[in-house]
Amino acid sequence: MASPLRIGLIGSTRGSSSQLTFDTIKRGELNAQIVLVVSNKGDAGILERGKNEGVKAVHVPCKKGTPRAEYDAQVTKVLREEGVELVMMCGFMRIVSPEFCKDWEGRCINIHPSLLPKHAGGMDLEVHKAVLDAGETESGCTVHLVTEEVDGGPIVVQRVVSVEPGETPETLKAKVQAEEGPAFVDAIRKSPFYREVSVVTAYKQMD
């Protein structure tokens, strides 16, 4: 049987959009394993989420004034110690260094709450407000590969929602967030490093 894709999850907040990945793996519908959760914030909810799922959760603190590349090297070390093959950024509130992008080229995905390249560089409610201010009729989320250009890496998956009359930044945020979990799962399956389990292989394992 093909070995599960080893995923490292990085975030600074609750990491709610990662929950569907945990759940899909537990249902046996995704040949992957989240082997590590890392955060720059000791009180980040994503660390608690990892612990609740039985996953190693590590706080990698960043002292003020630490060069970006130096901090990212610490994160990379922790990820590599766990044999991580794909990095998922889920609400990671840091811009990563060129060195990190090079180390994880093609192996690091991030989610953004807009249909990139629209509203690149924005965060959270300001993105949804910008969509409404622009009078756009649709929005959504984008999973993209992480590169040196912030929110500028190749698009892997986009999921679209409609913008209804009377929409507020808060209601639009809720609609977009509902698509973030499925977008992550889709993006994992599309990774060139993902090893799909064929029906024949699975049958032979059970036989």
UniProtKB/TrEMBL annotation:
Transferase recorded as keyword: yes
Keywords tagged on the record: Purine biosynthesis, Transferase
Ranges for domain Formyl transferase N-terminal: 6-188
Domain of life per record: Eukaryota
Catalytic activity entry: N(1)-(5-phospho-beta-D-ribosyl)glycinamide + (6R)-10-formyltetrahydrofolate = N(2)-formyl-N(1)-(5-phospho-beta-D-ribosyl)glycinamide + (6S)-5,6,7,8-tetrahydrofolate + H(+)
PROSITE patterns recorded: GART
Pathway linked to the protein: Purine metabolism; IMP biosynthesis via de novo pathway; N(2)-formyl-N(1)-(5-phospho-D-ribosyl)glycinamide from N(1)-(5-phospho-D-ribosyl)glycinamide (10-formyl THF route): step 1/1
Keyword Transferase: yes
Enzyme nomenclature, EC number: 2.1.2.2
Family named by the database record: Belongs to the GART family.
Official protein name in the record: phosphoribosylglycinamide formyltransferase 1
Native organism taxonomy: Eukaryota, Sar, Alveolata, Dinophyceae, Suessiales
